[in-house]
TrEMBL record:
Ranges where the Methyltransferase type domain occurs: 50-138
Entries under InterPro entries matching the protein: Methyltransf_11 (IPR013216), SAM-dependent_MTases_sf (IPR029063)
GO molecular-function terms, A-Z: S-adenosylmethionine-dependent methyltransferase activity
Pfam families: Methyltransf_11
PANTHER family per record: METHYLTRANSFERASE TYPE 11 (PTHR43861:SF6), TRANS-ACONITATE 2-METHYLTRANSFERASE-RELATED (PTHR43861)
Protein name (record): Methyltransferase type 11 domain-containing protein
Native organism: Candidatus Daviesbacteria bacterium GW2011_GWA1_42_6
Length: 209
C-alpha cells in the first residue's frame, strides 16, 4: 500500500468502530446488518482463519463467534489498531502488514475473511492473488465490498463531509461483477453472491479449486 494511504489509515482511531456502534445509530444499524448477513454466509471452521484488514479486531471477534476456529490470525496496516486487536483477542496472532504482500506460507488457512477492505488498496487484484496463494485448496474466502450504486455513493459523499478522516480512503469502486471477474482471474471459483443494505454492500464467497 502506498505511503499516503498508510498515513490516512493511521489517522483513523483504533476505537472508531466501537465508539461509532455505541454512539451513532446509523453506524449501529449499518454494522448490525453487516454482521447478520455475514453470519448467514459463514460456517464452523475446524482449523485456522485469517481476517485481512482486521483493524481493532471488532469484526474478528464476530467472525470467531460464527466459525469457532482453532487459531485466528489478523493483519492490518495500522500499528495502533493491531495493538488494540491484541488486547481484545489475546489468543489471536495479529501482525502489521500489507494485504498486497501477505507474510504467510502458501495453502495455510482454512478460511479467509476480507471485509470492506479491497476498496482501500491500490491493487485489489494483487490482494486476491495473495488470498488465493495462502488459502488451502477446497477452502473458502469471504469478500465484502461496497457496491457502486447511487445510494451508496450519496451516503459516502455525505459521510465524508461529516467525518473528513475518511476522505480519500476509498481508492477503488466496484461496478457490477468486477470483483467476480477479478476473483476468477486469480484462480477462484465464485460460489455465492449476496447483496444487502439496499444493494449497497455485496458479499462474494469464493472457493479455491
Amino acid at each position: 500500500m502506498s505511503k499516503k494511504l498508510t498515513e490516512i489509515h493511521e489517522n483513523v482511531s483504533p476505537d472508531h468502530y466501537d465508539t461509532g456502534i455505541k454512539n451513532n445509530i446509523f453506524q449501529r444499524v449499518w454494522h448490525f446488518t453487516r454482521f447478520r448477513a455475514l453470519s448467514k454466509m459463514t460456517e464452523p471452521v475446524d482449523g485456522t482463519i485469517l481476517d485481512i484488514g482486521c483493524h481493532s479486531g471488532l469484526c474478528t471477534e464476530k467472525i470467531m463467534s460464527w466459525t469457532h476456529p482453532r487459531e485466528v490470525y489478523g493483519i492490518d496496516i495500522s500499528p495502533k489498531a493491531i495493538e488494540k486487536a491484541k488486547r481484545r483477542i489475546k489468543a489471536g496472532k495479529f501482525v502489521i502488514g500489507d494485504a498486497q504482500d501477505l507474510p504467510y506460507e502458501g495453502d495455510f488457512f482454512d478460511a479467509i475473511f476480507c471485509l470492506e477492505m479491497l476498496e482501500h488498496v491500490d491493487f485489489p487484484e494483487q490482494v486476491l492473488s495473495q488470498i488465493h496463494r495462502v488459502v488451502k485448496k477446497g477452502k473458502c474466502a469471504l469478500i465484502l465490498i461496497p457496491t457502486d450504486n447511487l445510494l451508496f455513493r450519496t451516503i459516502w459523499f455525505l459521510w465524508n463531509i461529516r467525518h473528513p478522516v475518511w476522505k480519500h480512503v476509498h481508492v477503488q469502486s466496484f461496478k457490477e461483477e468486477v470483483l467476480e471477474k477479478m476473483a476468477e482471474e486469480a484462480g477462484f471459483k465464485v460460489e455465492r453472491v449476496e447483496k444487502f443494505n439496499f444493494g449497497m454492500l455485496k458479499i462474494v464467497k469464493l472457493i479455491k479449486p
